[in-house]
Known about the structure:
Layout: E1 19-28, E2 31-40, E3 43-49, E4 52-59, H1 64-74, E5 84-92, E6 95-102, H2 104-113, E7 117-118, E8 148-149, H3 150-163, H4 165-170, E9 174-180, E10 185-191, H5 194-207, E11 215-219, H6 225-233, E12 238-241, H7 247-256, E13 259-265, E14 268-273, E15 278-279
Parallel strand pairs: 3-6, 4-7, 8-15, 11-12, 12-13
Antiparallel strand pairs: 1-2, 3-4, 5-6, 9-10, 9-11, 13-14
Helix pairs in contact: 1-5, 5-6, 6-7
Amino acid sequence: MDIATLPAADGADTFCEGARLLPVHGVRGGEAYAVQDWVAEEVPVALEFNGISHAVMLATPLDLEDFALGFSLSEGILDHAHELYAVETGESELGITVRLQVSSAAFARLKQRRRTIAGRTGCGLCGTESLAHVSRELPVLADPAGPLERQAIARAMLQVQSLQTLQQATGAVHAAAWCSADGEVQWLREDVGRHNALDKLIGALANNDVDASAGFIAVTSRASFEMVQKTAMAGVPLLAAVSAPTSFAVATAERARLTLVGFARKDDLAVYSHPGRLAAAGYGAH
């Protein structure tokens, strides 16, 4: 969501987009209960490029045009958003199909990669045909105009938590948010898959001509290799995650000159690569 158009929370009791109201039975505090509760939607979403099926992901059926564009950019299928000519979605009993019309150059890149993905909840590596397709060439990120304050990350993570309307209703989704350099959340997307949430965010930034390099991304998940790779592909110089990174993620961040922050909780954080982008933190630059 664009934070300027965030819906009021009052309607959460009567309608929650991206979730279904289902009967739930359980025991709490030794007492049995039966209630109607919101459960996050998870459906197969197929991405077709110029009529050719390329990927099937399990995703929350929200912001699918952003998802299609963000996935195409972060996976290197599109070099620029203007290479995407049209997006159409269609539903069937089996799931949702998103049909993209892309430029001939982009379609040629797609065919050259010969990559077919069958993803579990945003797992973007399942089905990769060779090890050479896993780690690809990444842009080397330039430093922003000035160093980021540590407090900006703490401010952003606090805002992300309060703005996760679907997570508050269901307890089952991740969020990815783009934040200004002073830590104000400007754009946020949610999904059952952490990679999907990030792709949706990247697509929203591209669709709205946001200078992604002017801020940073905050996520409510661990920082896996693909989260770092997608952030670098979007041109964002810092990724802050509420949980830990992996060693492959740290190595990828070092290679792309991306500042990788983990365990970003309240005023605490751990910096795993290029700490020089954070001001007044007592870190030395790599």
